[in-house]
Amino acid sequence: MNFLYRIFPEQASTVAGGYDALFYFLCALTFLVSLGIAIVIIYYAVRYRRKTKTPEPLRPVHLSQRDIHRMEYAWIGIPLVIFMGIFYWGAKLWASIKTPPDDAMQIYIVGKQWMWKSQHVSGRREINELHVPVGVPVKLTMTSEDVIHSFYIPAFRVKTDVLPGRYTELWFEATKTGEFHLFCAEYCGTKHSGMIGKIIVMEPKDFEVWLGGAGEGSLSEAGERMFTQLRCNTCHTGDSQARAPDLEGLYGSEVTLGSGDVVVADESYLRESILEPAKKVVAGYQPIMPPYAAQLSEEKVIQLIAYIKSLKGRGPPAPDAGASPSDAGTTDGGTQESADAGVPDGGTDAGTAPGP
Ligand code: CUA
Q1: C-beta separation of 340 from 334 below 8 A
Q2: What is the dihedral of CA 302, 255, 137, 96, to 10 degrees?
Q3: Core-most of 95, 159, 190, 264, by most CB within 10 Å?
Q4: CA separation for the pair 109, 118 (Å, rounded)
Q5: How far is CA 237 from CA 231, 279, 342, 356, in A?
Q6: Of all atoms in ligand 1, which is nearest to the CA of residue 188?
Q7: 147 and 269 in one domain?
């Protein structure tokens, strides 16, 4: 589609082609229908124009019942097929744009007035730039420190709102190396229009080199230090006498709350349980953990979560470990698998309790 070069940004992600195809199809369909209507209007205007000052009344049209039915079937059936086709096409595309692959590389994004901050799992951080490898699915977990922003990469055809107080997700797989625009696509104050950045897509081996040059320790190491600093380890000791739940292997597992609800321990759940622990207290524990909402920035919360995610369990479970009903090999598979547990992703407001 090079003839549209000046109108459309280049296609630089795996979903860009499919996204544009649907858009072009809708444009073409709209154009053809409009054209058809225009032609009919012009034809009728000429055909039935007033030819004399005292025109003869037109003879009424009489159709057989059968013809009427045929017409009705046509005007119901044809649009139905077209629109259901568009719906199916769009829904499929939407699902693929919204569902990151399990092996996607994780990067964390925090938006604030007026900049984009990113943290790589390696610990490397950036502002208003995001380096990613080409040909590798990348999943962004995003939040905001202040108001609503929107993370938008036109060349990748992806855009997701970035909201204070919760995590949203966006994924892409770049297909070309180079630099691409990053915009904030939600008015967020005076310098909203300046909240722009660059996505820098590199060959995987260049990316590895770039990533390695940080030297401030990985995200989970930073989280581990904070875990000790905040003395989380005095309660989350991991032994059976602990006053707080064991965090080993927690991420991605199902947690039974005191209320009887079962939630999936995804990133949103971990975030909420750090900032406002009283909201979802794990069954069998007292709500004694203090809230950390006032003292942790979103970036620090992300580091803590990265640390908790790095705790993948204590190897083969001891024979008596069966306290959890859902210990069946809960890997770090991530939040998406919650679908098969019938629990909506995001978990914070899931409310999928089996009921009292
Ligand atoms: Cu951030 Cu507009």
Answers
A1: no
A2: -130
A3: 264
A4: 4
A5: 10, 21, 31, 31
A6: 2
A7: no
Q: Which string of b and e fits 192-225 if b means at least 16 CB within 10 Å?
A: beebebbbbbbeeeebeebbeeeeeebbbbbbbe
Candidates 226, 324, 308; CA nearest to 272 is 308
Q: Whose CA is nearest to atom 1 of ligand 1?
A: 149
CATH number of the domain that 291 lies in? Answer: 1.10.760.10
Token representation of residue 282: 């794990």
Quick one: three-class SS letters along 103-127? CCEEEEEEEECCEEEEEECCCCEEE
Nearest to 273 by CA among 347, 324, 343: 347
Cβ 187 under 6 angstroms from ligand 1:
yes
Residue pLDDT, tens place only, 246-263: 888 888 888 888 888 888
Q: For the segment 93-148, what is each residue's pLDDT rounded down to a tens digit?
A: 999 999 999 889 989 999 999 999 998 888 788 899 999 999 999 999 999 999 99
* % of the chain at pLDDT higher than 90: 45
Q: How far apart are CA 153 and CA 172, in angstroms?
A: 10
184 lines ligand 1 (CB under 6 A): yes
CB of residue 195 inside a 6 A radius of ligand 1: yes
How is residue 34 written in tokens? 């409009």
Which residues, listed in sequence order, are joined to residue 110 by a DSSP beta bridge? 117, 143
Confidence of residue 5 (pLDDT cuts 50, 70, 90): low
Residues 181, 130 share a domain: yes
Domain that holds residue 303: 221-314+330-341
Chain centroid to CA 73: 40
Ligand 1 atom at minimal distance to the Cα of residue 187: 2
Q: From 277, 270, 275, select the one nearest 249 (Cα to Cα).
A: 270
Reference 118, options 83, 142, 93, 84; nearest CA is 142
Kindly state whether residue 261 falls inside one of the protein's structural domains: yes
Residue in the structure block whose two tokens are 């962004």 = 140
